[in-house]
C-alpha cells in the first residue's frame, strides 16, 4: 500500500495490518473445533427427512384490488 504521504505512515499501516492478520489467524485456530461442532449440530438438525403431516402449514395469499 502506498499512501503517497509519509513513508512512516505506510510502514505503520503495514505493521498494523500484519498484526491484525496474525490476531485473526490465532482466533481462527483457537475456536476452530468449537465452530466446527456448532456447524455439525446445525447441519444434522436441518437435514431431517420430509416434514410430517402435522407440520403442514396453510397459507392464504390475497392480492390487493387496484382502484380505478
List the helices and strands and how they pair.
Blueprint: H1 7-30, H2 32-46
Key structural traits:
mainly alpha; 57% helix; 2 helices; 68 residues
Q: Characterize the overall form.
A: flat
Helix content: 55-70%
Low-confidence stretches: none
Helix vs. strand class? mainly alpha
Q: Got a strand count?
A: 0
Describe this structure in words.
- The relative contact order is 0.06.
- The protein is flat and about 65 Å long.
- It has 68 residues and is an all-alpha fold.
- The protein is 57% helix and 0% strand.
- The longest helix has 24 residues, at 7-30.
- It has a domain at 8-46.
Concise overview:
With 68 residues, the protein is mainly alpha-helical. It has a domain at 8-46. The protein has helices at 7-30, 32-46.
